[in-house]
Amino acid sequence: MAITFSIAGVVALSLAGSVVWGAYLLTPLRERFNLREFAGDDQFVWVNGYAVHYTDDGPHSAPAVVLIHGFASSVFTWRGIKAALLAAGYRVIAVDQLGSGASARPAEPIYTTQTQAELVLGVLDALGVPRAHFVGHSFGGRVAMQIAILAPERVQSLTALAPEAFATSRPGIARWVRLPVLGYVLAFYSTSPWLVRLGLRFVSAKRHWITDAVVKGYARPLYVRGSTLAQVWQARSPKDGPRPVPHNLSAITQPTLLLWGERDPVFPAGDGARLVRILPDARLQVFEGAGHIVHEECPEPTQRAILDFLELSTKTQAGLSFPAHPHHQTSEASQAADV
């Protein structure tokens, strides 16, 4: 019996060692691109000493719309909304957050909401854009809210798609990712491109959009050097800066559109109902049967809602009246749930 337990122990230790060493040995094989190799001829600007990647399309004389993606995402997520905005005549600026996409991945605990907000503002300063409409998804929605708190004069309107509005700390798994060795191993495997499809399916209620090409687009930034370490340092970073979003929501007075999936497994639609009661000038639209990534799951209704809101916001700021009271609207999404 003792011999059996000893053999089992040796096997278990060997497997654990393989998992640990596999993470360290496979990292340089997976993360084989530097930022320039990954992004090609795309655009970068240096903000506070960090290379921040962005795209800038459409006429520079047109109203600017700034797109801010969520956690573990990139500017790729905005391809549908970006096309719709460009077709409507807007200037569209999409920014890769620090640690994501083709932006820098510093190995230091600076990944706060405020740092990300300041970097987006730095990109706009470099481009000479004094004011814009902001659109953010998930954590990107939180960053957009932080911008509205820090620099309200820069924000014409705010559109937040299932924003991370109320969290005051990192999720539970972050405690494990902070640990030496184990944290790196968890970060490596949790950001594996092979798990991207599984992750997209988990957060989505409608899954018709999760094709091989889309999975490849979401996974591609994980091949940039420093991606695993960036996850570790994000877990080790404070959630917020001096003016945390959850405690300053009532300071966001700009016209705000909240878009939510009825079946969002990440931030429940109830958060939207709570937010619309706190924000002074907000309206909420819930998409039936949709999950966390509403702009992918219900592309046409989401694009239409954003375009209508931007047009209305522009008219309001030109002196026309806005609806007197924030409202809650439920929209039936265009496709049935695909489970």
From TrEMBL:
- Residues of the AB hydrolase-1 domain: 63-297
Source species taxonomy: Bacteria, Bacillati, Chloroflexota, Candidatus Thermofontia, Candidatus Thermofonsia Clade 3
User: Which Gene Ontology terms cover its molecular function?
Assistant: hydrolase activity
Region Disordered: start and end of each range?
Answer: 320-339
PANTHER family named among the record's database cross-references: ALPHA_BETA-HYDROLASES SUPERFAMILY PROTEIN, HYDROLASE
Question: Which keywords does UniProt give here?
Answer: Hydrolase
Positions of transmembrane segments = none
> So which residues are the signal peptide here?
none
This protein's name: Alpha/beta hydrolase
Provenance organism: Candidatus Thermofonsia Clade 3 bacterium
Q: Which InterPro entries does this chain map to?
A: AB_hydrolase_1 (IPR000073), AB_hydrolase_fold (IPR029058), Epox_hydrolase-like (IPR000639)
Q: Name one Pfam family in it.
A: Abhydrolase_1
